[in-house]
Amino acid sequence: MNKLFFIGIAAGLLACASQPDQNENLMKQIQTNEYFEFVKEKALEVVKTGFNAGDGYGEVWIRDYNTFIELSAEVFENHVLKENLMVFFRMQGDDGNIIDGFIPAEKAGGGYDYIYSELEPRYAGHKNTVETDQESSLVQSVYKYVQATGDNSILNEKAGEKTVAERLEWSMDFLMNHRHNEQYGLLWGATTADWGDVQPEHDWGVYLTDDTHYAIDIYDNAMFLIALENLMELLPEQKEKWQPVHQQIFNNCRKHLWDETNQKFIPHIYLDGSPFPDDFNENEIYYHGGTAVAIEAGLLSKNEIKTSVEKMAENVKLSGAGSIGLTMYPPYPEGFFKNEGMYPYGYQNGGDWTWFGGRMIQQLIKNDFAVEAYEHMQPMVKRVKDNDGFFEWYTVNNEPKGSGTFRGSAGVLWKAIQLFEKFTKENNQQ
């Protein structure tokens, strides 16, 4: 037999032998981590104070609530969590669309074109129409609520004449009827920076306008895939309807959005031209957040996940950022977005967001990359203690920005720590 064959066998046996030692060492690190307990306690402290996104926001946002509802379940009774979800259903649009967030009607005044509903007179709603993730976020939130509390009675609750179960499907129908592109078989939205809600063509950028350049991206479609999986688990009798849709979106994400040569997702498929200069090569940009959500949607193989985290680590090194929560690398150049906050490495254009970095950590743990997850978790939990809070985002120099009680960050880090503790428990039982 070939000598290389025996070398390969020996290497494989060595890897198998070292795995228990590696796991044992990691378990010790998890159990003695100097930041985990502080972060857990701080997360519970922050989430007790309410449901708005953070101290810089008056609204309860569904894309945020989706990432801390499980944490909220630790400190609030079921009916409180359920009531927040019911507000979104009572304010559902006549076409099935879901609002971004709601605020007490008497406090409405933040520049939005507010939405009102006879079913929910207490609140004013708003919707950033450049996004295509509100409906998916609500389905995921209801799923997490049921998983966390065991209370599936919410599915039979009524908002007006429709049950929650009916409204969940209606929200998915909205996406297929109003945000689905037939040519590519994928959902569309405005051009934004990865998962962001700011388009380049407007000073604020949260609404579709006559200048909008419509595009397809991985984040919106990966969120939809996760929502469809959740919906079919909540409503198994509807699986026959939604399974083919899920399969179509999954296949088309791989076909049209995955760049096999460069082992990354392309930023956008443009439906009516790009808002950026003709000589700009947008595919040089690597989207961290959309990639993390795509992994959650099951779109990448183990080898592709490994390549993804290696690329993210390299991007952090090249940019000088603090963590793999870096939204993208490189960022869009100066002046590409009319919103002045979207300067290179500013806000969603290359800011460092634990809110998405924490989701990548979760997926690394779930996909057997616990060692890498632990390594990349450290800067995120360290800065919580260093800054005594969960900040919305960080500059490339690791300086905290935005809300200091950003509940989405608290939620994803808390959940990641739960997964590390589960990993330790399961390995101790082996």
TrEMBL record:
Protein name per the record: Amylo-alpha-1,6-glucosidase
InterPro entries: 6-hairpin_glycosidase_sf, 6hp_glycosidase-like_sf
A Gene Ontology BP annotation from the UniProt entry: carbohydrate metabolic process
